[in-house]
Every structure is written in C-alpha cells, then in structure tokens.
Design a protein that fits this description.
Blueprint (H helix, E strand, L loop, with lengths): L1 H10 L6 H9 L7 H36 L15 H34 L19 H8 L2 H34 L8 H38 L4 H13 L1 H22 L5 E4 L4 E6 L9 E7 L1 H12 L4 E3 L1 H10 L11 H15 L11 E2 L4
Parallel strand pairs: 1-4
Antiparallel strand pairs: 1-2, 2-3, 4-5
Pfam families: Bac_export_2
Family: Belongs to the type III secretion exporter family.
Protein name: Flagellar biosynthetic protein FlhB
Length: about 375
C-alpha cells in the first residue's frame, strides 16, 4: 500500500487546473494557517491589556476593596429589611468586568475574522465537518505522526514556546529587579506596572509570531498546491469531461469569437484588400512593398465574423472585392499572420495591382472573376 501511495504521488507531476482548484474550494479544502489566528489572538490580548484593562481596573479594585473591608458587617441575606449588601458589591465587582469583556470579545472576533480574510480564501462548506473514517484510522494516525508535516509543526511549537518563555523570563527578571531594587518604588503602582510588563511580553511575542505566521502561510499554500497536483491521466480525463459539457463548450466558443473580433478590429484597418465569398467568407490581406515579402492574411472569418470584417473594412476605407473561389481557397489554406500559399500569388498580385491603381485613381477593370462587393 505504501508503494502504491508513493507511485501515485510521483505520477502527479502536473499543476492543478482551475477546475480542480475550484472543486477543492467548493469542498472547503483551502490553505489556511492557524499561526495567523494565534498571532492575532496574542495581539488582541496586547490591545486589551493596554486599552481595556485600565478602564475596568479602577471600579473592580474599588468593589473588591469594599468586599474585603466590609466582609464582617455586610448582610448576606435580604431578610426583613430587604437589604443585600453582598449582591450590590458583587454587581459593582462584575459590572466593570462585563463592560470590559464586551469590547474584548469584539476585538478578539474582529481580529480573528481579519486573520481569516488576510489569507484570502474564505469558504463556508459543510463538507469540512462531515465525519471521515480516515481521521480515526490507526494506520492513518501513525502515518500523520511520523510525517514531515508533524515534524515541522513540532519545530514551530518548540520555537514558539522557547521564544515566548525567553521573553517572559527576561521581562519577569527585570520586573522583580525593579520592584525590589529600585528606590522609591510605590506599591500602589504595582497593578499598573505589572500590566505594562504583561503588555511588553505580549508585544514581544507578537513581533516574533508575525514572521512565523508569514512562513506558515507560505508553507501551507505550497503544501496545498502540491497536494492538488494531477497526473497526466487526470488532466486528460478532466479535459474530456470539459469538452463534453455544452455550457463550457459554448462559453469557450464565445471567448474565441470575442478574441477574434477584438483582433480583427486592430488588424483589418491595416489590410490592403478584403476578399469575400460574398457573404459566407471574408479574408483580409495586407501587402506593403518593402515590408512584406508576400501578401499576409491579417484576418479571416465565416458568416458573422465575415460580416464584421466587411463592416470594419468599409469603416476604414479598405477595398472589399468579391471573388468566390479565391476567397474560399484562401480561407481554407492560410492562417492568420501567415503569407498566402505560392499557388495564389499570381491571382492576388493582379488584385493588389488593381487596388493600387484605384488608389492612384487610374481607371482600370478588375481582374477576371473579381468584382467590387456590394452589401445587399
């Protein structure tokens, strides 16, 4: 089985097609990094420590002090007087806490959503929560345990713990030194001082976690794209399925016609002459003496495209001539941006000579089999 898995992975040498990637996203299979969320959570705690806790600390401290100092005299039950000192103090204690938690929750949720949108692919799919036997398979669990992904995750977690522990140790040692060794340290400032030190630990951790999160995003995306790779057989099968889909085929034809029309709008004005069937075929030819060794096809088309070429030619004063057999032969034998075949040189030379004489306002008869095209 392991050999089969290796062979299957080795055969997936082709980059995933847009259709394969779209289907993966529809199933909720998108690259995502937990490190972005972890970094945003630490940064959210830093913001809470700096901006939210100072506003809640004062009322909470006052309520806690009242609870301790009046513990012996307060009335716990309502009794006949209807007084309940404890409930009032507890409300005073927890009201600031609740008031602080509301913006805290908003900040945490906002940054978590920002982290998700920062990674790009936002997909909501029930496919991700469906139970899968592979997730509880002992063999699959062992393979994940000894995989390169597990090793990298272990190294990332080890790096996070080591760096955060180092930052915490350094800040804690400095805090202890400040409290015990700095003359004139006022105990009343201890809560504010500790809050600043905790904020410093959180900020330092965030600074470290940002590059780790960037690395994790890049690694997860590379791993995801590698997982989506396809074998040549899968590419061929998908191509067959797509070719058989009428909607995809129609969309492809529409795009092809649009590109042809856009190209014709640029090239037909440069043509020397347009040959028609008169309605079913149109071939635009360019011949510039000294520039072109032989006449070049700059546009061609059938039916609607032929009508578009004739319209563009008239709008740009390009002569439109009718020569049924020559127009059909050129349409079948020459591609756009190619020189016309040698067997048609003589006939085309006579037509171009006729067009040049018209430009010089010389009264000449058109070549045999050729007439000026008239729209019906």
């Amino acid at each position: 089985m392991a050999g089969d898995d290796t062979e299957d992975k080795d055969s997936k040498t082709e980059e995933a097609t847009e259709q394969k990637l779209r289907k993966a996203r529809e199933k909720g299979d998108v690259p995502s990094s937990k490190e972005v969320g972890n970094t945003m959570s630490i940064f959210a705690l830093f913001l809470l420590t700096i901006f939210v806790l100072p506003n809640a600390a004062g009322p909470m401290t006052a309520a806690l002090g009242a609870l301790i100092s009046d513990a012996a005299t307060m009335q716990v039950g309502a009794g006949e007087t209807g007084v309940n000192d404890l409930s009032g103090i507890l409300r005073g204690l927890f009201s600031p806490l609740v008031a602080a938690l509301a913006p805290a929750a908003a900040i945490m949720i906002g940054l978590a959503l920002f982290g998700v949108f920062l990674q790009g692919d936002v997909v909501v799919s029930a496919e991700r929560i469906k139970p899968k036997l592979s997730k509880v398979s002992p063999m699959a669990g062992l393979k994940r345990l000894f995989s390169s992904e597990t090793a990298i995750e272990f190294l990332k977690n080890l790096a996070k713990v080591s760096v955060v522990a180092t930052i915490g140790t350094v800040v804690a040692q400095r805090a202890v030194t400040t409290i015990w060794d700095v003359p004139g340290f006022v105990p009343e400032t201890l809560p504010s001082f500790l809050r600043q030190e905790i904020a410093l630990i959180l900020l330092g951790s965030t600074v470290f976690l940002v590059p780790l999160a960037v690395f994790d995003v890049i690694w997860k995306r590379a791993k995801w794209h590698k997982k989506q790779r396809m074998s040549m057989k899968e590419v061929r099968d998908e191509h067959k399925d797509s070719e058989g889909d009428p909607m995809i085929r129609m969309r492809r034809d529409q795009l092809r016609r649009k590109r042809a029309q856009q190209r014709a709008a640029q090239t037909v004005p440069t043509a020397t002459v347009v040959l028609t069937n008169p309605t079913h075929y149109a071939v635009a030819l360019r011949y510039e003496p000294g520039q072109d060794a032989a006449p070049v096809c700059v546009a061609k088309g059938m039916d609607l495209m032929a009508a578009q070429i004739r319209k563009l030619a008239r709008e740009n004063d390009v002569p439109v001539l009718e020569n049924k057999p020559l127009a059909r032969a050129l349409h079948a034998s020459v591609e756009i941006d190619q020189e016309i075949p040698a067997e048609h040189w003589q006939a085309i030379a006579e037509i171009i000579r006729y067009v040049m004489d018209l430009r010089r306002e010389i009264a000449v008869r058109p070549p045999e089999g050729t007439v000026e095209h008239e729209e019906g």
